Amino acid sequence: AVAVSSFTTTSAKRAASTSTNMVSKITGMPAGPYPVGVTTIQFDDKNRKDPGNSNKLRGLQTEIWYPANIDEASSKKTKYSDYLGIPDGCSKDEQNRILDIANGPNAIGGYRDGISIEELDDPRRTTWLTDAVRDVSFVKEKKKFPLVLFSHGSGAYRASYSYWTEFLASHGYVVAACDHPGSARFTIVDNAVIVPGGARSKMNSMKLERPKDMITVLDGIERLSSDDDSSMFAGRIDCTNVAVTGMSFGGQTAAEVLEFQDPRIKAAVLQCPAIASSGLNVEWKNRDTPIMVMLGTEDTVIGRYDGNDAARQYVDNHNEDAYLMEIVRGGHVSFTSCEMYDPEYGNGIADKRSCPSQTRPGTTYRPLDIVQQHTMINSYGLAFLNTYLQQKDENREYDQSYLDEKKNHFSTDELIFRKGTTTGK
User: Fold this and answer.
1) What is the mean pLDDT of residues 16-34?
2) Which residues of 263-278 are buried (b: 16+ CB within 10 A; e: fewer)?
3) What is the pLDDT of residue 2?
4) CA 140, CA 359: separation in Å to the nearest integer?
């Protein structure tokens, strides 16, 4: 694993002492007991047409991270370009055409001036870190593993959250993240590149289709995990024990998925959710599925629209089993891996610079080190998922006792953690 020296928080010290691994710069935590595999699959919804092409079904390029066979863990790590899903057998000219689109300023090239897929693939120059190995076999352990679905933010990309997806897979979760066509900055469906624009990117269309996309992925993985399927996932994923998670627009998507009240979904983690766009006084039907909402106090994206207040209200209107975790010197992009594109990305990610403040307009703040922010997110996120998806933590630390609001595992100047006030009753 790519690693850095651990820092002095109580949680990080305990985590480091229970593992032979150092703290990963990718996840902010020591890796879990499982090596991480990754594979790309397209799921099609036979009941929906593509809003951008009525002759096509809604197709979703999806990444799945999973606990892998330890005997293959030393295999070559995945390359960034592997996430593009360039079709096998396409000509060199076609590959170059796809790379030109991906490198464009509105696609992957927009993450930092001058960045390119070629740079991200080059081991001498890359800033992209990963511990995932592509297309290795599933861990041999004979049990079913719980499923975590993830929904990306608007204009984002499914691979840009590896701090969360790889970490959870190393702890025994299967994690699936699709690109939402029209909302993702780049994706390939049926061998065709899709970038934002047109009917797919209309706000009403995205709000309607994104929650359905999550169910499409869940249904697709349920088929793959059936005992009579020939895939490596057959009989290995517990699709009755699912959490839905997401960041920004993806956090709102997760909240909307909960409104379906699908009995397979047992919990949700909403990271800087854009639920204010649903209205500050919206009546959410599902107030019972356990939730954890994560915020950056200095978020200037959802913060401009009272988004943090709406998210806090969402927690407090829930019945029991609702938690709020808020990073005081965190921003909107704290809940991504965008520091691997640009260490000065902004809005919660800055190595040497300051960022505009949401709480003190006209001033700036220095974000907390992003590795420490990811430690906070992953430690509380893992404890929450272990609690409500009934995963056993080998170290007996990241379980329900970790969620005691009387125990802040970090500095109270840097992190707010509390349960909801249960005003929803």
Assistant:
1) 73
2) ebbbbbbbbbbbbbbb
3) 38
4) 50
| 139 vs 177: CA distance, rounded Å | 20
* CB-CB neighbours of 324 under 10 Å: 21
Half-sphere exposure of 332 (CA within 13 A, CB side): 26
Element (H, E) at 50: strand 36-50
| Maximal C-alpha separation, the chain | 61
**The pLDDT value given to residue 18:** 35
Residue 394 reports pLDDT greater than 80: no
Strand 53-67 and strand 174-178: pairing?
antiparallel
374 vs 165, 323, 334, 418, CA distance in Å?
12, 17, 8, 18
Of 72-76, 77-81, 117-121, 345-349, the poorest mean pLDDT is in 72-76
Tokens (6 digits) for 334: 């704290």
Q: With DSSP H G I counted as helix, E B as strand and the rest as coil, what are the percentages for the chain, rounded to 5?
A: 30, 25, 45
Contacts of 257 (CB under 8 A, 6+ apart): 149, 211, 214, 215, 244, 265, 268
| 6-10, 230-234, 276-280, 375-379: the lowest-pLDDT one | 6-10
Higher pLDDT, 15 or 234: 234
φ and ψ of 422, to 5 deg: 55, 40
- Which is nearest to 312 in space by CA: 357, 273, 262? 273
Strand pairing of 145-151 and 192-194?
unpaired
